[in-house]
Amino acid sequence: MQHLDLQVIEQALQWSRAGHEVWLCTVLSTFGSAPRPPGAMLVARADGACAGSLSGGCVEEEFLNSLCQGAFRDTVSIIRYGDNDDERRRFRLPCDGILQVLIEHRPPSQDWFSHLEALVATLRGQRRQVRCVDLTTGALTLRPDQGGEAAQVKDEQVEIRIGPVLRLLLAGVSPVARICASFARELGCEIIACDPREEAQGVLIDGIDVQPILPSLYIASGGCHETTAVVALTHDPRIDDLALMEAVRTPAFYIGVMGSVRTSAKRAERLKRVAGLSDAEIQRIHMPIGLGLGSKTPAEIALAVVADVLRVYRGKARDEL
For residue 60, what is the enclosing H or E element? Predict the structure, then answer.
């Protein structure tokens, strides 16, 4: 889940509380090439106001035009965009792309408010859940996520996995960290920066206040969930090593630290000797951090770092690139 999804659900809750009917759209599947993945969401009102994205353009326009003309009055419906050559040209879907979209028409009600509040808590929280929508009655339930496809239709029910927003935890402030934050913002990540050093106080990283706390303390207090990436980019062992020691004890999906191959080998030995980290815990740490792009400048290093985070998040091995 990206930060955009949280914005969509928060907007749906705001409009619903204000008394508006809303239409919540979710991409269920894509065939061929598609700009947005399964699980991507858009919320709209009857007047055409909307938040979120399904395809990055013409599909949204087609949906909103139909909505403003009175379409989609059923509680739940599924529609396919791009089923023929004319539609693919009209919607500018690349490579014969087809989108299957769940459309929910939800009037304001206490049950709907409660469901949206639960989704907001899930996106901000620690655990993934599955959002279940009954295609016959429109009934809504949430259950713990046991893994599986991002979205699927099973036995007259749609199941959509929903979980915490991808979080980039910057362990310390540095030129590379600043640029990583900028890239991560464009990708829709939640960004948290921690650095207790005096020179980091009052600093903004892409509009984010730096928390004046050791990253290791923030991590130890529960700051990492399963969609958290911890990146240590300061070259200061007092910041970097302590953050790594705590991060390997969390479900963070990515842990990385900046340094040369030689520096990384020395760090691995130090973490084993001083902190008692096991070989398995050491293997969880990406060091040197990032893809091997031959990066030299802070911007190039930041690009390599964020690209590697995204690679691991998408489940891609290095030899698949």
Answer: helix 58-68
Q: Is the pLDDT of residue 33 over 80?
A: no
**Cα dihedral 213→215→219→222 (10° resolution):** 30
Nearest alpha-carbon partner for 232 in 158, 310, 319, 169: 169
Report the DSSP beta bridge partners of residue 286: 256
Every domain of the chain and the residues it spans: 3-162, 167-320
Tens digit of pLDDT for each residue in 152-173?
Answer: 998 899 999 998 878 999 999 9
Euclidean distance between CA atoms 137 and 76, whole angstroms? 8
Strand ranges for 32-112 from DSSP E: 41-44, 50-52, 76-81, 98-106
CATH homologous superfamily for the domain 167-320: NAD(P)-binding Rossmann-like Domain (3.40.50.720)
What CA–CA distance (Å, rounded) separates 123 from 162? 7
Q: What percent of the chain clears pLDDT 70, i.e. is strictly above it? A: 93
CB 233 within 8 A of CB 289: yes
Q: What is the pLDDT of residues 56-95, one digit of tens each?
A: 677 888 899 999 999 999 999 999 887 765 554 454 454 4
Can you list the alpha helix ranges (DSSP code H) found in 171-297?
Answer: 175-186, 215-218, 237-247, 261-275, 279-283
Q: In what order do the strands lie in the sheet with 129-134?
A: 140-144, 129-134, 157-162, 151-154
The answer, as to whether pTM is greater than 0.85, is no
- The Cα 108–Cα 72 span in angstroms is 16
